[in-house]
Write a structure and sequence with these properties.
alpha+beta; elongated
């Protein structure tokens, strides 16, 4: 489903962005080449205090390759949701309004989108949620 979203989502009228949070990363300089003599490694001064870790929040638009990122020291939902709201609002503000599809056309697109799923997600019909239980896929195991 994710691969189809990358390939076909925008052609179907969807705006596809993916979100990720990477880290934690140490907030210290990375070791690399230095001018220290062999056997005498570079040392930090005694005043040096570690600053902990940082994470990076990213939004990626596969079609254009655009990346929006922000560094944070932690990523609870309060931080993540506020950042997503800010970024997605900015993205929506740049988009041109599109014609709203008729309900039947939306339903057909939804069915096409769900066709290859083992557990399709059903839409509400007549104001009630239709729930279809899904049988998990299991691989046969040969007896020893």
């Amino acid at each position: 489903m994710i691969e189809r979203a990358y390939r076909e989502g925008e052609e179907m009228g969807l705006v596809v962005w993916t979100q990720d949070a990477a880290g934690p990363f140490q907030t210290v300089p990375c070791e690399g080449n230095s001018w220290q003599e062999d056997g005498r490694p570079a040392r930090h001064p005694h005043e040096y205090v570690r600053d902990g870790t940082a994470k990076m929040l990213t939004l990626f638009h596969p079609r254009s390759g655009e990346v929006r990122a922000r560094g944070v020291t932690s990523c609870p939902n309060v931080v993540l949701h506020a950042w997503l709201k800010e970024e997605l609002s900015a993205i929506l503000a740049t988009m041109s309004p599109k014609a709203v599809r008729e309900r039947s056309a939306n339903g057909e697109l939804w069915k096409r989108w769900q066709q290859d799923l083992q557990c399709p997600i059903t839409l509400p019909e007549g104001g009630r949620q239709k729930w279809t239980p899904c049988v998990p896929f299991t691989l046969p195991v040969a007896a020893p």
